[in-house]
TrEMBL record:
It comes from the Bacteria. The chain crosses the membrane at residues 32-60, 72-94, 100-125, 174-198, 204-225, 262-281. Belongs to the 4-toluene sulfonate uptake permease (TSUP) (TC 2.A.102) family. Its main location: membrane. InterPro entries: TM_pro_TauE-like, TSUP/Inactive_protease-like. One of its GO terms (cellular component) is plasma membrane. Keywords: Cell membrane, Membrane, Transmembrane, Transmembrane helix. This is Probable membrane transporter protein. Residues 292-302 have a biased composition (Low complexity).
C-alpha cells in the first residue's frame, strides 16, 4: 500500500511537471520505477498505460484552456504513434540486463538536456508565424515516438523544444498540442508492449496508482502552465533525473563502480544541480525585474503626444 501511495504521488508530481513544461512525465515516472527494481520494458509499459489516461485528461484540459492546435496534433501525433509502436517492440525484445542500462543512458541524457536547456537557455517566449509543415512534424514525431517508448520517456523533451525553436507557435499552444498528441503515442506504445510482453508482465496496480495521481494533476497543470516559472522547474527536474539514473548506471554491470567513485559522482552531481537551480532562480528574478522596469518606463497614455522637453523625467533620463 505504501508503494502504491508513493506511485500515486509520483504520478501527480510528474503530471504537474509535464503539464507545465510540456515534457518529463514519462522520464520522471520511469526513472522512479527503475529505481525500485522494475525491468526496463515493464517500467515503460506501466508508464505508457497510465499515460493513456493522463494524456487524455491533460489534452481535454488544455483544449478547454485554448492551448491546442489540432492540425499540429495530427501531423506530429500519427507519426509519433508509429515510432512509439516500433520503440515498444524493440525494447520488449531486449533482455533485462541489456535494456535497463540502455534506458538509463537515454534518461540520463534527457536529464542533462533538461538541466542545461532550462538553466542556460531558459524557456523560449516563442512567436507566431506560418503553419508548421508535415515534412517537419512527421519525422519529428517518428523520432520522438521511438525515443519515448524505448527510453521510457522523451516525447516532450524531443518534441516541445523542436517546435518552440521553429518560432511559429506560442509556447502554451506548443505545450498543449504536444501534451494532447501524446495520447496517440501512449496508446500505440501500450499496444506494442502488450503484444511484445503480454499483460502478465505489467503491474496494473502500479498503472492505476500513476493514473490516479496524474489525472488529479492534469487540470491543475493546464492552469499552472501560465503561472509557474518553467526555468526553475526544468532545472530541478533535470537534476533529479540525472542523479537517479546515474545511480542505476554506476551500479550496472556495464560500469560497476566502487562505492567511493559512486559517492564522489553523487556529490558532484548534487553540487552542480544546486548551482543550476540557484542560477535559474537568479535569472528568473532578473527577468522579472527587467519586465517590471520596462513596464514602469512605458509612457502614460496622456504622454504619447508630448515632446521630450514637455516630459522632464524622460529628458533627464535620456540626457
Amino acid at each position: 500500500m505504501r508503494k502504491l501511495l508513493l506511485l500515486a504521488l509520483v504520478g501527480l508530481g510528474a503530471q504537474l511537471v509535464d503539464g507545465s513544461l510540456g515534457m518529463a512525465y514519462g522520464v520522471t515516472s520511469t526513472t522512479l520505477l527503475l529505481a525500485i527494481g522494475a525491468s526496463a520494458a515493464s517500467a515503460s509499459a506501466t508508464v505508457h498505460l497510465a499515460e493513456i489516461g493522463t494524456t487524455l485528461a491533460s489534452g481535454v484540459a488544455h483544449w478547454r484552456f485554448g492551448n491546442v492546435d489540432w492540425s499540429v496534433v495530427l501531423k506530429v501525433g500519427v507519426p509519433g504513434a508509429i515510432g512509439a509502436f516500433a520503440g515498444a517492440t524493440f525494447l520488449s525484445s531486449l533482455s533485462t540486463e541489456t535494456a535497463v542500462p540502455i534506458m538509463s543512458c537515454i534518461l540520463f541524457t534527457l536529464g542533462i538536456y533538461l538541466l542545461v536547456r532550462f538553466t542556460v537557455v531558459g524557456f523560449p517566449t516563442g512567436r507566431t508565424g506560418p503553419p508548421l509543415r508535415k515534412r517537419f512534424l512527421g519525422p519529428l514525431g517518428l523520432v520522438a515516438g521511438f525515443v519515448d517508448a524505448s527510453g521510457g520517456g522523451g516525447w516532450g523533451p524531443v518534441g516541445t523544444p523542436a517546435i518552440l525553436a521553429s518560432g511559429r507557435m506560442e509556447p502554451r499552444r506548443v505545450i498543449g498540442s504536444i501534451a494532447t498528441s501524446e495520447f496517440l503515442v501512449a496508446l500505440a506504445a501500450s499496444v506494442g508492449f502488450l503484444v511484445g510482453l503480454g499483460s502478465e508482465n505489467v503491474n496494473f496496480a502500479w498503472v492505476g496508482a500513476l493514473l490516479l495521481g496524474g489525472t488529479v494533476a492534469a487540470p491543475i497543470a493546464a492552469w499552472l502552465v501560465r503561472k509557474i516559472p518553467p526555468r526553475m522547474l526544468g532545472s530541478a527536474v533535470g537534476g533529479i533525473i540525472i542523479l537517479t539514473n546515474s545511480r542505476t548506471l554506476l551500479r550496472s554491470e556495464w560500469i560497476d563502480a566502487p562505492a567511493g567513485v559512486r559517492y564522489a559522482a553523487y556529490a558532484t552531481i548534487l553540487a552542480v544541480w544546486a548551482g543550476a537551480v540557484a542560477w535559474s532562480l537568479r535569472q528568473h528574478l532578473a527577468e522579472q525585474a527587467l519586465t517590471a522596469s520596462a513596464a514602469g518606463a512605458a509612457p502614460e497614455p496622456g504622454d504619447a503626444g508630448r515632446s521630450k522637453s514637455e516630459r522632464p523625467e524622460l529628458a533627464d533620463e535620456l540626457g
